[in-house]
Amino acid sequence: MKSFAAISALTVLTVVTAKPTVTEREAPIKARSVPAVEVSGNAFYANGARFFIRGIDYQPGGSSENVDPLADTTICGRDIPKFKDLGVNTIRVYSVDNSKDHKECMQMLADAGIYLVADVNNPKYSINRADPHPSYNAVYLQSVFATVEEFAKYDNTLAFFSGNEVIHDEANTTLTAPYVKAVTRDIKNYMASRGLRHVPVGYSAADVADNRMQSAQYFNCGSDDARSDFFAFNDYSWCSSNFKESGWDVKVKNFTDYGIPIFLSEYGCNTNVRDFGEIQALMSSEMTSVYSGGMMYEYSMEANKYGIVQIDGNNVEELKEYGNFKNALSKYPAPTGDAGAAKTSHAAASCPTSDSVWMADPTKIPTMPEAAEKYMTAGAGEGPGLKGDGSQTAGDSASDGDTTGGVPSPTSSGGKSTGSSNAAAGMTFGGPIEKAPLAIAGLAAMFTMFGAFLL
Questions:
Q1: How confident is the model at residue 427, as a pLDDT?
Q2: Distance of CA 16 to CAs 5, 211, 353, 441, Å?
Q3: Nearest to 163 by CA among 181, 147, 175
Q4: Cβ contact 219:228 at 8 Å
């Protein structure tokens, strides 16, 4: 590892001599309407008060259209008044264009008291579930870091998702887990190295019974620099039922003392007309000691028929379930106080062991590609946006044998869950933990100052 750091340092010396154009650090854009949200214990807090996510998933046009609604004031300006009318405090956007400016839409959201949870991936720049190794490369990470650089400066960016349903209901998809964990580590190290506000980073999982708990355990095991700050999953099991019939009571029990915040990144079974009784449960004492709310899927009516509004150009028609969702949010407000939240956080006791269901090696996650190290100091530069050439076959991935996982040898089995997958609606883009990125970043900074002094 010393030789790797030395090579990186030599690279930095060359860069200093060449005087490249680097990404300028922008001062945080203080959205005066809202305070930044932070993780404490197993919950979120804003200005010392517990924060519950009472949100909606937002991607008008769906994944096929792949348009960033926060880069166009015509789109966000049309929909933000509806979000305010509904009473949501958070939206999730699955595809954001990191080549565009988002100041106006983000300020409009902040003025409405609304936060953003942003996916760092999109259909062209993501981990390939079918073949993850080559898709984890410097081209991909440049896009990820450009997204982080753009959105970390807004106080109303609540969280980043490092992946969405990458692990699914085929056992071999669990082999992607180390790559998603590596992305989580890389984002956290990038924010630290670049002096950005630490925005919480976590994973949005499919609600697959065979690997749900292994996924949760895996993303919360090991050292802090690769552990997720929270865990979220997409849940469609509440279908005209109640807290117990849906199995939510069992999930609360399973996640009790999990150690970090949990919330639903998607919910809202649509097999019948929805009255959104999920909100009553999410805001009740049955769940608030463990869960921090959730986001309903979804705002606009798309091909899968989950929307609560019909969009036609600049016209937005409120459908019946719009009123149902608005009424449920009004009827079941967020509780006051800490609502049973744990005061301290902790890692999982062990990582899930490899078996026929969970195939990921608990001891390894890949080293960041060497070509991506430069972004830690120089910044990611301009992002490729949503129309770039893509990254999944760009190459330069770390060696399969490289380990930076920091995941200790487990002492107990993860165990196999039973039951079927409830995943239905949302979009899917397909030794000790390595602290080299941060160490190299510090070394690079030293050489940068030395080079500047010589000049």
A1: 60
A2: 16, 47, 45, 14
A3: 181
A4: yes
38 is catalytic: no
pTM value is: 0.84
Token look-up 């983000």 returns 106
**Cα–Cα distance between 409 and 352 in angstroms, integer?**
10
pLDDT in tens, 126-155: 999 999 999 999 999 999 999 999 999 999
Q: How far apart are CA 434 and CA 425, in angstroms?
A: 36
Q: Please report, in angstroms and rounded to a whole number, the separation of the first and last CA atoms in the chain.
A: 30
Indicate which residue of 38, 149, 150, 165 is catalytic: 165
Concerning whether 266 is annotated as a catalytic residue, the answer is yes
- Answer with the residue of higher pLDDT: 348 or 29: 348
Q: Where are the alpha helices (DSSP H) in 66-176?
A: 73-86, 103-111, 132-135, 138-151
Q: How many CA atoms lie within 13 Å of 350's alpha carbon, on the beta-carbon side?
A: 11
Catalytic hit among 149, 150, 266, 434: 266
The full set of domains in the chain, from first to last, is: 2-454 (3.20.20.80)
Residue-level pLDDT at 429 = 60
Contact 322, 309 (CB under 8 A): yes
312-319: long-range pairs with CB below 8 Å, 24+: 314/74, 314/78, 316/78, 316/79, 316/82, 318/82
- 270 confidence band (pLDDT: 50, 70, 90): very high
Instruction: Say how far apart CA 158 and CA 39 lie, in whole Å.
Output: 10
Angle (CA) 99 155 265, round 5°:
80
Q: What is the DSSP letter of 393?
A: T
